[in-house]
Amino acid sequence: MNIHTVSTTPYSDQRPGTSGLRKKVKHFQQPHYLENFVQSLFDCLGELTGKTLVLGGDGRYYNPEAIQIILKMAAANKVGRVLVGREGLFSTPAVSCVIRRYKALGGIILSASHNPAGPEGDFGIKYNISNGGPAPESVTDAIYARSKEIDRYLMVEAEDIPLDSLGIRNLAGMAVEIVNPLADYAELMEELFDFPRIKTLFDTGVFHMHFDAMHAVTGPYAKEILEHRLGADPDTVLNSEPLPDFGGGHPDPNLVYAKSLVAKMYRGNAPSFGAASDGDGDRNMILGKRFFVTPSDSLAILAANAHHIPGYRLGLAGIARSMPTSRAADRVAEALGIECFETPTGWKFFGNLLDAGKVTLCGEESFGTGSDHLREKDGLWAALFWLNILAVRRQSVEAIVREHWANCGRNFYSRHDYEDLPADLSQQLMEDLRKQLPTLKGKRFGQREVILADDFSYTDPIDHSLTTGQGIRLCFEDDARIIYRLSGTGTEGATLRVYLETFEPDPARHDLDTQVALASLIQIADHVAQIQQRTGRAQPSVIT
Ligand code: G6P
Ligand code: ZN
Q1: Where is the composition biased (Polar residues) (predicted)?
Q2: Are residues 201 and 274 both part of a single domain?
Q3: Which entry of 6, 114, 163, 524 is 20 to 30 Å from 256 by CA?
Q4: What are the tens digits of pLDDT across the range 402-449?
Q5: Ligand minimally distant from the alpha carbon of residue 350
Q6: Are both 191 and 161 inside the same structural domain?
């Protein structure tokens, strides 16, 4: 066997962010860049002999090349077996599912999630551990530390492995098993949801839906599950073919980017239900006929309706949401008599709670929802959860949401993003906010009094690890909140996110436009942080 030891020098910028290492494709194509990171990972994983890894990506540009490099490095590092999705495809939730089902050591996912792809776009690599979830900070810190001192990597010299047909191949003693990336995931969905009942809903002939795969990885999954197994119309899945540049689009499931779906859901004879997922299949957006469900409301409503779903019929152990996510779910948890955990932004913070059986459902305002069925957020799962609720309740999406608000009150919620700011300017803005914290508590802004002002920190209740500096929180007497936080996922400049939330118990006021309902809070947010003045921006670049 031909194992080469290749000398290399470290790169200083391989610290994984909120969700793995993400850079421009061109950055990854620098000599030894990908190899350095992969070897740093292998060096941190301990004994690899006889171990199984899962490998695949969202189909974006540079995926096929990266897969061949990683396979040859895995063989040289004595990995026992690698399960690779056919054509190199695997959604993030499917990797999580397969790691768990086959008790793999972990999985490597090639994706920059919803970031645009293509030669000028982004590429990314993230590692998931044996519970199927994103590597915790202890692991990513170790990889980063290793990447700063790496001086060699290992690689076998061999032909590329064809990825287009199922079967087992031998790569310098390592088994490369090309598997159907849909099979285990689709089976798991059948275990959780009432497929016969959802089928009946489609059989009525009056219920129609669309799922926008945005030319990314969920196309084949959605076609298999919605159209083939559940009997939805053959044109249900939009943009179903994964393309290396995602068709030039930006596969982020929100009202701005999921254009094909939004056009269909907001026209006269719109279908009853719409959903979209992102590049790697973990995010979701839920729409009714001319109606948008915020991710925070979606989490609360899934929790309140979980008893209708076979996989959750026994009840929820607890709920977890990221700190900036609205507190709609907290009200459901209270009504159900279960605990609601508040974690820093990033799915990895749910892992310990899920493993310890403390929570069943988790969600984030950033269009992520999931459960203990695996250890990632899961876009198609969220759509199926909603479909199952619709099949049982036979009401419209809007009616279900309005009934929920009437029962629990409405948390008006919006996120204002200021994208592409100079890094030093945004850091200074946050620093100055931090300095203001001691003087903010007790301060009044119009009718509102600040009752809590802090920089969010989190002690994991399971392993007691402490995570600090997770966003500036201002909580007011009337249950309103403002949160300031810098994005951890960008590849260019800095993005300031301002999260705004008020609580409205009165159903007569539930029809207000969100931005109108939040207007006075928006003013306070600008006044405290001097956003307009400091950034020179009259308004946010994106409002969700
Ligand atoms: C990724 C992670 C999510 C997280 C989001 C936040 O999508 O998987 O768990 O909520 O990033 O992104 P941000 O840009 O706000 O750091
Ligand atoms: Zn994603």
Answers
A1: 1-17
A2: yes
A3: 524
A4: 999 999 999 999 999 999 999 999 999 999 999 999 999 999 999 899
A5: 1
A6: no
Average pLDDT of the chain is: 96
Containing structural domain, residue 261: 185-408
- Within 57-182, residue ranges assigned H as helices are 63-76, 92-101, 137-147
Query: What is the sign, positive or negative, of the torsion defined by CA atoms of 132, 17, 82, 247?
Result: positive
User: What CA–CA distances, in Å, run from 113 to 30, 181, 333, 379, 516?
Assistant: 21, 17, 30, 12, 32
Among this protein's residues, is 426 annotated catalytic? no
The CB of 240 under 6 Å from ligand 1? The reply is no
Report residue 419 CA to chain centroid gap: 19
Q: Are residues 387 and 439 in the same domain?
A: no
Judge whether 66 and 257 are in contact, CB under 8 Å.
Answer: no
CA–CA dist 319, 238 (Å, integer): 32
Chain centre distance of CA 363: 9
Whole-angstrom distance, CA of residue 502 vs CA of residue 400 = 21
Å from CA of 8 to ligand 2 middle: 31
Q: Is 489 in the pocket of ligand 1 (CB under 6 A)?
A: yes
Q: Which of 357, 374, 408 is the last residue of a domain?
A: 408
The CA distance from 217 to 234, in Å, is: 18
466 & 321 share domain: no
Q: Which whole-number Å values give the CA distances from 221 to 62, 181, 185, 276, in the listed order?
A: 21, 9, 8, 12
Evaluate whether ipTM surpasses 0.90: yes
Token readout for 53 is 């890894």
Angle between helices 328-336 and 295-305 (to 10 degrees): 10
415 vs 483: CA distance, rounded Å: 9
- With a 6 Å cutoff on the Cβ, whether 92 touches ligand 1 is no
* Best residue for ligand 1 mutational test, from 126, 296, 489 (most atoms within 8 Å of Cβ): 489
Helix axes 137-147, 33-44, angle to 10 degrees: 130
What's at 538, amino acid-wise?
A
Q: How many domains does the chain have?
A: 3
Residues 6+ apart with CB under 8 A from 110: 55, 56, 57, 58, 60, 62, 63, 66, 67, 88, 123, 124, 125
Please say which residue of 155, 181, 207 terminates a domain.
181
Tens digit of each residue's pLDDT (9 = 90 or more) over 291-343: 999 999 999 999 999 999 999 999 999 999 999 999 999 999 999 999 999 99
Residue 509 structure tokens: 């006021």
Read off the amino acid at residue 513. D
